[in-house]
Specification:
2 helices; single chain; alpha+beta; globular; Ubiquitin-like (UB roll)
Length: about 90
């Protein structure tokens, strides 16, 4: 299981979505697909229509920048961060 942490900006959009979720997945992409099964539309918020994260979404696995193909190990910490801009 990986320990996945989501940004607070997502929780108001998906009823019952916690900020922290344990997921059984081999890659970051699989973890997002797992979440999308329970909260449909979540993948669209995090990923482009193809196999890429959206430009304002950054994912780190054990403090290292990650992509959808980044492997997850038992006990990996996955942080999903949404960049916020303003002026």
């Amino acid at each position: 299981m990986a320990d996945l942490h989501l940004p607070g900006t997502l929780t108001p959009l998906f009823a019952g979505l916690p900020r922290q979720v344990d997921v059984d997945a081999n890659t970051v992409g699989e973890a997002i697909e797992h979440l999308d099964r329970d909260w449909p539309g979540l993948r669209d918020r995090l990923c482009e229509p193809g196999p890429l994260l959206r430009g304002h979404i950054h994912v780190y696995v054990d403090r290292e920048r990650a992509t959808l193909d980044t492997p997850l190990q038992l006990g990996s910490r996955v942080d999903v961060i949404a960049a916020i801009s303003g002026g």
